[in-house]
Amino acid sequence: MKQHHTSDGFQRYKAVRKHTERLCSNLQTEDFVVQASEEVSPTKWHLAHTTWFFETFLLKPHLSSYTEFHPRYSYLFNSYYNAVGARTHRFHRGLMTRPTVSEIMAYRAHVNQEMEILLSIRQGEEIDSLLELGINHEQQHQELLITDLKYNLSYNPLHPEVLDIGEYLSEQQQGWETIPEGAYEIGFSGDGFSYDNEHGRHKVLLEAFNISKALVTNGEYLEFIRAGGYQNVDLWLSDGWDWAKKNNMKHPLYWWERDGGFQCYTLAGMKKLDPDAPVAHVSYYEAAAYAEWAGCRLPTEFQWEAASDRLDWGQRWEWTNSAYLPYPRYQKALGAIGEYNGKFMINQMVLRGASVATPEGHSRSTYRNFFPP
């Protein structure tokens, strides 16, 4: 994983850590614990897991004087690193009323203090690389924290207002862009941080294609709903149809039908649906069905990247029609760090772009996000 070397590593570390806590500044204690499904995590867990990452991969192996804050935290807050050891079940994260929020904040303070010591006495490429990865890992979890918090709080009938990040911006480009046939360079190059799954830059031959400059809007998606899109089996992939029927899907997540119209839940509370804002929180299955209904299809991640310098792509994560697979010459890191990306290259689809919840530095045209469809 590429990184850049800085003399103010600890200052960058502190700034990222403080921002994570700032995102939680309007929460009440009870908000930190709730976990509405296995697919999301409680806010408290995100605060602890990002701290565990620095403790596990930097402090324990590289600071001989380091003493664990608590001997069981490694078990409680390991996410998926099999090489590190056993861990609690993901769907049990919301059952952990202990340790308390205040204890987790003390854990963060303890690790911050020890990180300052480590970075004052140890330097070198390995430390720099792990620090850069840890900072970017916490920034990823800032976006996950926001996303998971929204899902968790959406089940509260009071529709709590906790964070205004301008979720539904409606200004965007219009029309279509023609991308000519050619061999396009795909993957990361240059300076700055990037993840291993962006590497193995290679050429891809693409035929000419047209791609929409505009994201699909709420109003356009509403036309799909009113045209019976969720009831038309011909529009759906087989797995998608099964998913839609099993979950009784009738509209996107966070839409609420009220008095013949729709509202949507945001972290700033319930809002009237903006027909001009890009539709958000749809599954791959829904996106593919809409594209079929519109007489189009989702772009591959290679088409998306080839067109990215001509598109205003920073508003929303966008589903592509590409399975998450390694690039040519992809090399997985050794040990537990190698579990970061490589082992997930199965049964997932690639998303490209960014969102209003994406931290600075994570919006780049080569960034490969991935989720189950």
Describe the SSE topology.
Elements: H1 9-22, H2 43-62, H3 73-77, H4 101-121, H5 125-154, E1 176-179, E2 182-186, E3 202-206, E4 209-212, H6 218-226, H7 238-246, E5 255-258, E6 261-266, E7 269-272, H8 284-293, H9 301-307, E8 317-323, E9 349-353, E10 369-371
Antiparallel strand pairs: 1-4, 2-3, 5-6, 6-7, 8-9, 9-10
Helix pairs in contact: 1-5, 2-4, 2-5, 7-8
Keywords:
373 residues, alpha+beta, paralog of FGE (formylglycine-generating enzyme), three-stranded antiparallel beta sheet, 34% helix, disordered N terminus
Can you give a write-up of this model?
Helix 2 (43-62) packs parallel to helix 4. The protein has helices spanning 9-22, 43-62, 73-77, 101-121, 125-154, 218-226, 238-246, 284-293, 301-307; strands spanning 176-179, 182-186, 202-206, 209-212, 255-258, 261-266, 269-272, 317-323, 349-353, 369-371. It has two domains: 9-154; 176-371, paralog of FGE (formylglycine-generating enzyme), CATH 3.90.1580. The strands form four sheets. It has a three-stranded antiparallel sheet with strand order 5-6-7, with no helix packed on it. The chain has a three-stranded antiparallel sheet with strand order 8-9-10. It is built from nine helices and ten strands. By secondary structure, the chain is α+β, with helices and mostly antiparallel strands. It is globular. The two termini are 27 Å apart.
